Every structure is written in structure tokens, then in C-alpha cells.
Amino acid sequence: MPRFLDLRTHDVRFPTSRTLDGSDAMNPDPDYSAAYVRLRTDRPDWPEGHGFVFTIGRGNDVQAAAIEALREHVVGRDAEEVLADLGAFWRELVHDSQLRWLGPEKGIMHMAIGAVVTALWDLRAKRAGKPLWRLLSGLTPEEIVDLADFRYLTDALTRDEALEILHRAEPGRAGREAKLLSDGYPAYTTTPGWLGYDDEKLARLCREAVDDGFGLIKLKVGADPADDVRRLRIAREAVGPDIRIAVDANQRWDVAEAIRRLDALRPFDLAWIEEPTSPDDVLGHAAIARAVAPLPVATGEHLANRVLAKQFLQARALSVLQLDATRVAGVNENLAILLLAAKFGVRVCPHAGGVGLCEAVQHLAMFDYVAVSGRVEDRMIEYVDHLHEHFVTPADVRAGRYFPPLAPGAGTELREESIVEYTYAHPAG
Amino acid sequence: MPRFLDLRTHDVRFPTSRTLDGSDAMNPDPDYSAAYVRLRTDRPDWPEGHGFVFTIGRGNDVQAAAIEALREHVVGRDAEEVLADLGAFWRELVHDSQLRWLGPEKGIMHMAIGAVVTALWDLRAKRAGKPLWRLLSGLTPEEIVDLADFRYLTDALTRDEALEILHRAEPGRAGREAKLLSDGYPAYTTTPGWLGYDDEKLARLCREAVDDGFGLIKLKVGADPADDVRRLRIAREAVGPDIRIAVDANQRWDVAEAIRRLDALRPFDLAWIEEPTSPDDVLGHAAIARAVAPLPVATGEHLANRVLAKQFLQARALSVLQLDATRVAGVNENLAILLLAAKFGVRVCPHAGGVGLCEAVQHLAMFDYVAVSGRVEDRMIEYVDHLHEHFVTPADVRAGRYFPPLAPGAGTELREESIVEYTYAHPAG
């Protein structure tokens, strides 16, 4: 019987603050980081499972410590048994009552569970010889709903309703998989839009985004109002009339302020406004959405769990759900969120960028297209051209589209050399 | 100039699971713990500041590691400057963008900030020679609002509205302080009601609660429905007709289930239902509150931050707000929550028990009575008779009332011997 021998963590940090990549109105100088975990069994012929939580620097060590706290749930366990029922294992971790107290179901401990769960999926997919999206897309509707936890969701989505959604999508799976392999999945880019870039760099990157085939670009806003208007003018001029422009305020505003600031941006025909205020503020987002309609409100990268996702959907507080691979408790919770979005008919445009978020979240979006919503026309995965070279299977984005990964696994494995080179050395203190 | 020399943490755990003290439908075997912090300056004549986060066991080390991550914000800083503007210091910690990513403003990192902020208040109160409640009650309305962060709150409460609430309460401060000193502040008890106690122990502890002068007791419910009814019958018989009984489901139910289960408890004329479902589910609580009215819905010990508190108030999703001393980012955020509750006219009945929660939260409730809401008639602080002996200034509860602490500080200091004796020794592994 194969047993888990080891759970090892690494505090990996890339010094992105040096170039202001990733700078926005709330995060002036992020150091893109990964609290990284690898799971090893006692079977030398088994691959390792890799997962991580994306953070932006300080505290990445605390995030890694939280992953270490899950060691006793993993090490020594029968690996085949765990992998065969990841729904049960997810529930065991999330419902560990002592650890749950530290959230509950949110923040550092919840994301730590996400990293371990994703590492288990990575291992299961590698063992199956399939990329994660294809592994998930090959499960029966019953197997898929068994992975999701419907606790706290049943007033919005029951197990039976989820099954119905999945059964409805079943006949078209093969056709959509073939289409995905030939056409890829649409991408949009945030590469041009970081707040720390000067106007010249902004214009140049906007032109490059068009040349690279992207149909939508995203700009950071929310600091100085005059800057927002000037940068939007520069971007519009650079991309021409046919490219869509979305904006992201990164939680900078209060409700009334958001409505006022967005009124000033009306002339720019924005694709959406992202994170106008606190990601916990369901009612605030709903008020903003009503006031700025038909401008779509987008959020998700900081939605702490499926209970918040549920409420945002119930309250019509978002119309673009930005699924994030590492904010919630991993693949299983994101399956539940995809099912919720399908129930409410809301489009999912995943958050990515950071460290490995593109690599990880594409599997979920592609699974959604093949087996859940069946839709791709109104959807896009975010793309930022940073740090992909550190991954064993970097995202394959060409002509503004993600082409499906074919290598076995969840896409979450960093190159050994990158782990070694960027393992954080704490300053002496 | 006095500087902070040191931030030391301790992983303190009491083995309460041995006796099932604190057992409920979600937490069968808690080990009540404190991730404890002490701040020391380079001035030998200054006292230390002490603070903590209450946890229930596993992960207490991760919580302590999160407190350690705040070291660079504290050590080396001018202590007088920091203590003189704790509003600014709170904002500095909460808005550290890299650390904020780990919440944002929720979970382990947010509670860690709470521990440090509370330790600073403990130090400031000791330096002032006053108990915290009296220090806060002596501040001007302008000084108090400067301590609160109104970011994300202004759609429900502006700085000016908060000032108006505080100015309105100002003339009665002295009278209420005198009344507090003579009469104390009402308490209720949860000591009898833990789910792990057998019927005989339940009945005995109910009778003792009445003898001790409590006017309300609280029982854990939410596991087996028949058990709930049987235990409520036993409790009612033991306490007689004049004592109120509240129940606490500790997040055990989904929305429809809560409504159905509470319907079966209608005959017992309950004082409130606490935590019927996920503490993140504003809309779910609102639906439950409408369905079970006039039974009041209570929650708070897991309300992650002031943004959730705001929404629960806006949506009329609770009518008893159970302020918690260590769930949010310390004294400052709890001031904001008290101001919100006063604005909405909702009564505050703080959550306590655990380790040191009674000692800590009484200061906030007493400050609220003297300087914010001016009300005590409809309020009570929870009391559980556990672990008080480990504190330097244990809560003084007599005849069902908390009598105001008079010793300088925030009440958050553990006895040195208790820290040493209960510092957790990690099992070798």
C-alpha cells in the first residue's frame, strides 16, 4: 500500500517589486511569491504532487507554516485511498474543527488546504497520465458532485440541481473537447496596465497586446482620477476602437466613491469594473452594480469561499465571476463555485497572473467549458506575461488564446532550479 | 526616546478536550489556546503590553507565526509615538499590502494584527494607570473616531454620524460610569450547556447557574434533534419559568434546515438562536431571521471584520451582535463595530468564554455603555467559568454581573507561571 511519506514546503519569492510588475492602487510593490508544497509517497515509481498558494511577499512564510499544519492529515495515509475520494479528504481538512476556527473557511488556513488539495489533484492527474482539465472532464456527473461540498449552498444550489447541470452538458463533452484542442480558450491581458508603468511603457505594451492577438486588455485604476482618464485615453488610442478595455480598482473605493468615480469613466465604454470595493461587501457590490449598469461588475480573486460566491450570485452583485485557483480551498471548492455560476447563468472569467495562476486556473476553465457550463463565447482567462518560465509546463498562450495543456498534472509544478534559486532567505534579524 | 525592543510570542494551550468543556455541534473537542504576544520596550520602568488570539488548539502555532510576521512593524519603533496614535498604527498594519493579501482583513493575519493592537492598548492603559474601559471612556468623541477606520463603512456610517452618536452620549458618561461601578454589567452563562455534558451534569449546572444569579443561560444545539428537545426540557425544568434560555447551533445548519429545526424549538420560548449557519452568510441569516421572527438571531464570534458586521446590520440579518475581542483586528476595529451597532440600534451582547475572552471583551462592553450606546438594560456579556485563574486580573463576576476591572491594562495578561506551564510542546514528529 503506497503511503504519503512527506509533505515539504518552500517559501519561494520572486523580487517583482524591483520592476513594479503587478503594481496597482492597493498593492504598490508586490513580490510575487508561492507558499509551495510537494507531496511524496514511499513508492519511488510514483510522481510527486505539487501545489501552492500565491501571495505577494511578506507573510509567505506564515502561509507555508499553515500548510505544514496539515502534515498530520497527510503523512502516513494510504495514498490510493486518499486520491480515490478527494471529496471526502477535502471535507476532512476543511471540517477539522480546531483548524477551522482559524478562518473559518477563509484566509491563510483555508488557502493552505487549497494548496494541499491541489497537490493531491496534481498527483492524481499525473498518475492517470492526464492533464487535470481532461481528468475532471472525464468524470461522471455523480463523481463530480461528490467532489463538491454543498454545505451552506443548498438555498442556492442543491446536489440534484448540480447533477442536472452536469447531465445537460454531458452529450456535448466530446465536441467541445475537440474544439478546445483546435481553437484554444480565449485570453485577455493585464500585462500593459500596471499602475507603476509610465505612459510610454503603457502605450507600447498596449500596442504589443493588440499585435499578440488579445481582444481585451485591462488597466489598473483607482489612484488619482486624472491619471485614470489620461491612461485610458492613451490605451484607447494605442489599441484602436475594436479592442475592449476593462478596468480594475483593486478594492480601492467605498460604495459611493466607486459610483462617482465610475461615472467619470463612462465615456470609455468599459468591458467591466473589477473589485470596486471590499471583496467581502456583497451588498456594496450589489449597490454599485445597480448604479453603474449596464457596466458589468467583476470580482473573485479575493472571494474567500463558496459562501461568499453564493451570495454575490444571489444578490446579482457581480456579473463576471473571476475564479481564482489559490484563494479558496483548491480544486474541489472551485468546482462548487463553477456549479453555482452555471446555476445562476453568470460568466466565469478567471483571475490569473501572479505566480502560476495562469498555469493552474486554465484547467478549471477548460473543465467548465467541456463539462459544466458548455460556454466559451462570453469568457476569457486573464493572462499576464510574467514568471511562466519557472514552471515545468508553462501556459501555452498564442494569438490571444490559451491552448490546452496536454502534459499530465495540474500545471502547478515549479522547476527544481527555480525553487532553489528563489527560496527566500530571511534577512538576519 | 523609548523604543520597542522585543515582540515575543508564546503558543499556550490548555488541554480542555479532556473534560469536553467547550464542546459543541461543530467543535467536539477543543483545546482552548492562546497565541500570545508580549511587547517590551527598552525602558525598564515601562510595563509590558500583552495580547492574544484565542484559538481552539491545532494551528495555534501558525497563529503565533502570523503575529511574529508583524515584528518588523513594531520592533525599533518609537513607543510613545506609536501609542499616541493607535488609529494610524492600526491602519499601517491592516493596510500593509503584502500582508493584507493573506486575508484580506480576515482570518489568521487579521487576528494577528488584533493581538498586537490589543497588546499596545494594554501597554497604553497600564502607562495611563487605568483599566482600558476607563481609558477609552475618557477620550473625546474626536479622539475615538480617529481610532476607527471608516474605509468600506461610509455607505452605512460616516465619521460625522459616528461623532454625533458619541457627542449625544457625552453628557451621561459620568452617571453611567458611577452606575457601572456600583451595579456591574449583566452577564449570562454558557457553563451548563456544552454538548459533551451528560443530562445529570446539565441539570446540576443549570441549577447552579440560577443560584449564581444569572438571568439567562445558553445551551448548545444542532446535533441530534431529539437531544435538543430533551436537553431543553431538562434545562427548563431545572431553571424554572423565570430564567431565559438561548441556544447556539455553532454554524451547523443550512438555511432551510435552520428554519425547520428552529420551528421544532418554538415551544421553548428561546431568548435567541445563535450562529444558525455560516458566519459569512449575510443573506442566509437574513432569510432565517425573517422566517423565525420574532425569535432574535445572534452572531458575531466569527464575524471576520467590520465589513461583514456592516452588512449583517444593513440586511437586518442579526438582532444580537456578539462582539468578540480577538476575531477582528483588535480594539480599534471593535470600536468601529460598536459605532455601527449604535447607528443601527442593535444590541451588543459580547461573545466570551474561551481563554481570556471574558477578561478582554468586558472592557469594550463597558466602554460602549459609558460612551457609545449608553445602554445596558437589554445587554449581557457571556460568561463561562473556565481558565480565569490563569489571568493576572480575572474577570470579577458576582451575582450574575461583571464588576468593572479597576487594575490598569486591557485585562489580557496571563500569569507568568501559566505561560510557562501551558506552553505547548510539539509532539516529536
From TrEMBL, chains A, B:
<dbReference type="InterPro" id="IPR034610">
    <property type="entry name" value="L-fuconate_dehydratase"/>
</dbReference>
<dbReference type="InterPro" id="IPR046945">
    <property type="entry name" value="RHMD-like"/>
</dbReference>
<dbReference type="InterPro" id="IPR013341">
    <property type="entry name" value="Mandelate_racemase_N_dom"/>
</dbReference>
<feature type="domain" description="Mandelate racemase/muconate lactonizing enzyme C-terminal">
    <location>
        <begin position="199"/>
        <end position="295"/>
    </location>
</feature>
<dbReference type="InterPro" id="IPR018110">
    <property type="entry name" value="Mandel_Rmase/mucon_lact_enz_CS"/>
</dbReference>
<dbReference type="GO" id="GO:0016052">
    <property type="term" value="P:carbohydrate catabolic process"/>
</dbReference>
<dbReference type="Pfam" id="PF13378">
    <property type="entry name" value="MR_MLE_C"/>
</dbReference>
<protein>
    <recommendedName>
        <fullName>L-fuconate dehydratase</fullName>
        <ecNumber>4.2.1.68</ecNumber>
    </recommendedName>
</protein>
<dbReference type="InterPro" id="IPR013342">
    <property type="entry name" value="Mandelate_racemase_C"/>
</dbReference>
<dbReference type="InterPro" id="IPR036849">
    <property type="entry name" value="Enolase-like_C_sf"/>
</dbReference>
<dbReference type="InterPro" id="IPR029065">
    <property type="entry name" value="Enolase_C-like"/>
</dbReference>
<dbReference type="GO" id="GO:0000287">
    <property type="term" value="F:magnesium ion binding"/>
</dbReference>
<keyword id="KW-0479">Metal-binding</keyword>
<dbReference type="GO" id="GO:0009063">
    <property type="term" value="P:amino acid catabolic process"/>
</dbReference>
<keyword id="KW-0456">Lyase</keyword>
<dbReference type="InterPro" id="IPR029017">
    <property type="entry name" value="Enolase-like_N"/>
</dbReference>
<dbReference type="GO" id="GO:0050023">
    <property type="term" value="F:L-fuconate dehydratase activity"/>
</dbReference>
<dbReference type="Pfam" id="PF02746">
    <property type="entry name" value="MR_MLE_N"/>
</dbReference>
<keyword id="KW-0460">Magnesium</keyword>
